[in-house]
Amino acid sequence: MSFMKGDLLTKTRKLVKGLAKAEPVWYKAMEQAPPPTFPRADAIQRIALPEDVYIKSFLRSIQIPNMKMQSSFLLLILLQPVYLVVGCLS
C-alpha cells in the first residue's frame, strides 16, 4: 500500500496530517533531528558464471517436447559418468 511507504517519521507524519492519529510526544523532536536515511538496496542480483551459457544450451538440447517438467532423475542420469549410471540401474 503506497500510503504507508517510508520510515516511522513519514508514516506518522501522514497519519497526523490526515487527523487519523494524535501527534505523539516525540514527533517534534524527531522532525528537528530525523534519523539518517540509508540508500535503498536494489534487488538481489543473480550469480552468473561463465559456463552458464553452455549449461543452458545443453539443457535446451536434451528437452523432451511431451514432458512438461524435466525430471531430476533424468538430469542426474544424463550428467553422471556412465559407470555410475550402470551401477544405479543394476
UniProtKB/TrEMBL annotation:
The keyword Ribosomal protein applies. Keywords: Mitochondrion, Ribonucleoprotein, Ribosomal protein. InterPro entries: mS23_dom. The keyword Mitochondrion applies. Belongs to the mitochondrion-specific ribosomal protein mS23 family. This is Small ribosomal subunit protein mS23. It is found in: Mitochondrion. It comes from Rosa chinensis.
